[in-house]
Amino acid sequence: MAATKTVRVPKAYFVISDHQSTKSAVLEYIANMKSLSKASQKLGESLANLHLHNINLGKRLSKHSNWVGKGRDENNEYISKFGFHCATSCGYIPMVNEWHNDWVAFYARFRLEDKINGVLENCGDRELRELWSKLQIIIPNFFKDCVDNQIVPSLLHGDLWNGNAGETGETDETPIIFDPSSFYGHSEYDLALARVFGGFRSRYFDTYHSVIKKAPLFDKRCELYELFHNLNHWQHFGNSYRSRSINIMKQLCKN
């Protein structure tokens, strides 16, 4: 994210390993950082620019040369597939980020199905299994307004809620985001978690959509993306997130 120069993130210095399974990242300390408030509007713009960065790289490469797959623009590499070059974690459980050409298939398999399988391994929930058998068939319906190759991979924060965002105490009140679970995916995915936990003002979303236009099925897709985060919490923290996950799936299956 730092390489895109679209949004401020703490500088990464190095990684410490205990030569077993534990590693720690040493990051920049940002003095006087406070909860996101006045900078929420600016963050909406910055996040949209982050999401457009890879898309714009692709447009420039397409304009200036014939390319297949990946190409380079200075220090930035255009990514034509969904996924990431390594596993990332949203919590402590690693996520599968295998490269895939199709976003809908990637999300259904490596986000929803992977989480559902994880929950089923822990508790074996019959209703969850039955709802998933219905939902997985109709997932493409939530993307009917995304014609042809309209969904282009965007670099995502991946875990963007108010606990992973702040602003400086400086006069310009610069927004800062941190603790990512990054991968290349659909830009709308990054807006869903903010709706689960709140904490972002309406001007954050309004400013974002002044840069990236709100699609007709955006709200319904956000419910689909919210499902991942609820399932993820169910897998991490247990049955306190069961009711919310099941209710979302029931609502989605009605459409």
UniProtKB/TrEMBL annotation:
<keyword id="KW-0808">Transferase</keyword>
<dbReference type="InterPro" id="IPR011009">
    <property type="entry name" value="Kinase-like_dom_sf"/>
</dbReference>
<dbReference type="InterPro" id="IPR016477">
    <property type="entry name" value="Fructo-/Ketosamine-3-kinase"/>
</dbReference>
<dbReference type="Pfam" id="PF03881">
    <property type="entry name" value="Fructosamin_kin"/>
</dbReference>
<protein>
    <recommendedName>
        <fullName>protein-ribulosamine 3-kinase</fullName>
        <ecNumber>2.7.1.172</ecNumber>
    </recommendedName>
</protein>
<keyword id="KW-0418">Kinase</keyword>
<dbReference type="GO" id="GO:0016301">
    <property type="term" value="F:kinase activity"/>
</dbReference>
<dbReference type="GO" id="GO:0102193">
    <property type="term" value="F:protein-ribulosamine 3-kinase activity"/>
</dbReference>
<comment type="similarity">
    <text>Belongs to the fructosamine kinase family.</text>
</comment>
